[in-house]
Amino acid sequence: MNDKAYMVPNPPTPNKAVEFNPDVCTGCNLCVEVCPTDVMMPNPEKKQPPIVVYPEECWYCGGCVEECPRPGAITMLHPTQQRISMNWKRKATGELFRLGMKNPPPPNTRPPSGG
Amino acid sequence: MSTWHEYVQRNGKVPEWPYPVDYGKVNEVDSDVLVIGGGVAGLQAAINAARAGARVAVLERGHAKRSGAGGAGVDHWHGAVTNPCSSVTPEMYTNACYDSMQGYTGAHVRYIITKEGWDTLQECERMGIQIRDVKDEFKGAPFRDEKTKLMFAYDYKNRHIIRVWGWNIKPKLYDEAKRLGVNIVNRVTPTALLTAGGNQGARVVGATAVSSRTGEFYVFKARATVVATGGAGRLFVFDPETTASGTMADMNSAGVGQAIGWEAGAEFVGMEGGGPGALIGFGYAPYSMGNASNTYHGTPIVDAEGKELPWVDVFGNELKSWEDRFYPQAGQEFQLGIGIGISRTNREFRLNDIPPDIVERIRRGEFKLPLYADFTRFSAAERRGTFGMMVGNEGKTRIPIYDTMTKAGFDPDKDLFQAPVMPVEGYFNACYWAGGPNTPPTVRSLGGGGFLTDWNLQTNLEGLYIGAGSTIYGGGCHGESHTTGRYAGRHAAAYARTATGPVIEQEQVDRERETAYHATRQGKGGNGWKEINAAIARIMRDYCGRYKNEQTLNLGLRLLDELKTTELAYAYASNPHELGRLLECKALISVGELAIKASLQRRASNSILDFHRLDYPAMDPPEWHKLLPIKQVNGKVSVRDLPLDFHLKPPFASTLEENYKRYSGTKL
Questions:
Q1: Which residues numbered 326-365 in B keep a CB inside 8 Å of some CB on A?
Q2: Per-residue pLDDT at B345
Q3: Is the ipTM beyond the 0.90 threshold?
């Protein structure tokens, strides 16, 4: 492990707000275009995912995810302190779950009503 | 790769600003009607002005396709009382709001909202927004009307609050505005209203703005202007690292519309009012935890051992079944619902609820924490109507809650949704995610005050109209923003048809252009906008908090001015984004000054306004039951008295209906 060390400010809190999957994202920047607060900026390298520059300005509306033409390219991530608060318990078994857990249960695939 | 840190450490260099920067380059935008703020109110104003034949420009801080507090969606629509299933009339609804606020709300605005709310919603339907259960998913449910397929929230008997599938409402409005040829200018921060001769108090003839991407300068020239901006969410608290996804006000909520109105000489009322800052983000992500309020109204709450919490009606009588929670009980006329800015004082028309003594009963051990929302106790229709229909369409729920939670495996058919664990006082309000005790008691929000408008929704300034949820005196929530925007746009267009062409005072434009770029010319070692914003919020919390006196208010004014002429004056903007945020800081100081100056004028404590003067501790003396409209004349404060029922006094007619006939501009 000899990664070069840089003099950079601490990572912001929160640090991500959204996460891109570079295998799916084509760098079309539609998410950049609609974000109300310019959380993201286009990547200087063409066709690469945008860069999250102002994550602490995100209000987590999810509009970027709705705008994305390629499902899975962008994921909205609640900040850790909000994520850790979203807990549920299976009524029949008493199992405890939380958003962001290591081994999550299978997804509930039922779409929302409408749209 | 997603973050700036990853990029920098991979490439060993800081990425350059991605947009071409040209500070000061002038762009001129000419229109009949200028709409400032492209949220739901602003786009409604633009659409309706365009339909009336006006050439329309929209000045928008973010991108109008998804921006604004209403841009994240809506699940229920208040005030659509003229829908065919409703047994509430505009008069009943308006008087209930007015009486609940003991007169401290703009009843003319409420009446307009109820007269046109249903029409506005039907127009939304024609734009492609689903407002009916067209797929018959909820056939036979008690909250559904089988003939119209409309679905209702809160009060299933009186049926005046409509459930809607509004997750995509903003893109649909945006498409309609574009189709009508509205010129939308995105990513610009307004810096001033332009007035005839550049004079405070004169006719409004446009606005100036700066792009937060290119730094270019914009001069908007218009015959009529509609301000449709949101609230000042960053005024009393600035702590985005903590509030993050918990807030219901995005970072653009800097009160810029109020600020430029105040500086132009517009009149405001109720700016001394306030309330606890519960939705500002110190709780939990909105709708992200078990609760029984608002969108989750009526949801069964159980304790750690599965024992269900009781519900009571408005008279304190325990309800027998969960179905009863959605009906007014004997003796109650109808229920207003919450989320329209009056629930704090609403008594007679409030909803069935978990009783307030639940706090004591939890403390005594009768119910054990944690609490859970148990949707399985609902019928399948009610469960799906709550989590799936309402959660899934309400603002900040489709992706942030429904999509996120279901992908993580949450299933309302099987799972108990945990409520926050917090000091027991927090369970007083069933909107548990707001997390009452988590919000510092010093954190406040402006509540209920705004621009004073007449029955045309015009301000005291010729050519300036208001359409908004929180910026107008008498506004409300999502649907109210649409409806006031629609009405203001129609009236602005009518004015523009007969008004003379706007004449811009070049001296005012030059002055604004010079001032706007101040931060780009400073040394690079100054404070950033975030630190300054935090200081503004500190001043407001300390000197314009729940308790105040003449001395502390004046000290607050002094410190805002200190900040403006010192730290803010030395702040450097590295790029157009920081410049936009610094311009917003300047606007926040203006709104802060407005709130403090309004507070100085009310020399009496007032319970409805949650206004406590330590130097005038007697609560609600009758001689102070009045409005105190405040404005600037030649930079000096000017205040007058106005009766609470001014909307029914000359020059207006004496009834709501007669005024609506006279002023609405619609054929009745």
A1: none
A2: 64
A3: yes
